[in-house]
Amino acid sequence: MINYAVILAAGLGTRFLPYTKAVPKPMLPIIDTPTLEFIIREALECNIKNIIVVIGHNGNVIKKHFSKNEYLNYRKLSLDILDKIAFSDNVQLEFVVQHILDGTASAILAAKSLIGSHNFLVMNADELFIKVHPYDKPASKQLIDLFDITDANIIGAQRVSKEDASKLGVIVGKSLDDKTTRLQKIIEKPNIIDIKDPLVNLGRYVVKNTIFNYLENVKPNKSGEYALTDALVDCAKFEPVLCYDFMAKRYDIGDKAGFMKANFDLSLSDPIYGDEFRKYALKTLKNK
């Protein structure tokens, strides 16, 4: 059973400057809701109660968002707004600071004392996963269910176009079935002509507590960063690490185009403004 989640939200967000000069990238809004809230809601849908958010130098903005605002007159707010604010006021989070931004391995190690001896879910705040169908399980829950069956470290993965795969980490391993691959190695940003199976690792992982042994000893990559994925490749030499092709619509919200697509798609499905926005988008595209 997974009762802990670590959300990696400490990046500088340089691709979103000047906005991120003062405001952390996870506070970028999808319509009116910070992207980080979507990630936290996904963890809560998995019945995870212990959520640790790894923040950076300007993380106080995140802390402030998830605390009660004494200056708001709650009595004058609409029920819709009150419902949204109630979530951010009442969700229970713990925060740790990643002082040196040198990779995901270091970010997770910053949370080690809070995780203790527990196995846990790792969530990259740069990647948003939306259910394809309302009845689908959240992306993270699909990985947790496989973990509960196999007791193996799990990497969230999807098959993408070869063009997209050449910009990401391509998984190489032994196929166990049409959804599951046993990890052998991950090739970062390979040449497109060298890609046989465009299965890539994405921003959700379920890991055993023993991963800390590998995180503490992982070598820096070509960018000088210490990466969780490299630690998992090291781990795969001694115990199973499974890559699971889960179902969900992915948005790379650390990228401007991905962030814009997320806002566009979720605006279309907004229960209040969706119809109005759809008419506007169709009219604008027709005129263009």
Overview of the structural elements:
The structure is a single chain. This protein has 288 residues and is an alpha/beta fold. It contains eleven helices and 13 strands. The chain has helices at 35-45, 60-65, 79-90, 104-110, 112-115, 139-150, 162-165, 211-215, 228-235, 256-268, 274-287; strands at residues 4-9, 29-30, 33-34, 50-55, 93-97, 120-124, 127-130, 153-159, 169-175, 180-188, 199-207, 241-245, 249-252. It has a nine-stranded mixed beta sheet, sandwiched between helices. The chain has a two-stranded antiparallel ribbon with strand order 2-3. Strand 2 (29-30) and strand 3 (33-34) form a beta hairpin. The radius of gyration is 19 Å and the shape is globular. The mean pLDDT is 92.
Write the layout of secondary structure elements.
Layout: E1 4-9, E2 29-30, E3 33-34, H1 35-45, E4 50-55, H2 60-65, H3 79-90, E5 93-97, H4 104-110, H5 112-115, E6 120-124, E7 127-130, H6 139-150, E8 153-159, H7 162-165, E9 169-175, E10 180-188, E11 199-207, H8 211-215, H9 228-235, E12 241-245, E13 249-252, H10 256-268, H11 274-287
Parallel strand pairs: 1-4, 1-6, 4-5, 8-12
Antiparallel strand pairs: 2-3, 6-11, 7-13, 8-11, 9-10, 10-12
Oligomer status? single chain
Task: Summarize the biggest pleated sheet.
Answer: 9 strands, mixed
For this structure, what is the CATH homologous superfamily of the largest domain? Spore Coat Polysaccharide Biosynthesis Protein SpsA, Chain A
CATH topology of the largest domain: Spore Coat Polysaccharide Biosynthesis Protein SpsA, Chain A
Averaged pLDDT, please? Answer: 92
| Percent range for β-strand residues | 15-25%
The number of domains is: 2
**Spatial order of strands in the largest sheet:** 5-4-1-6-11-8-12-10-9
Helix-strand makeup class: alpha/beta
Distance between the termini: 52 Å
Shape: globular
CATH architecture of the largest domain: Alpha-Beta Complex
Low-confidence stretches: none
Rounded Rg: 19 Å
Task: Report the total helices.
Answer: 11
Helix content: 25-40%
- The count of DSSP E runs of length 2 or more, i.e. the number of strands, is 13
CATH class of the largest domain: Alpha Beta
- What is the succession of H and E elements? EEEHEHHEHHEEHEHEEEHHEEHH
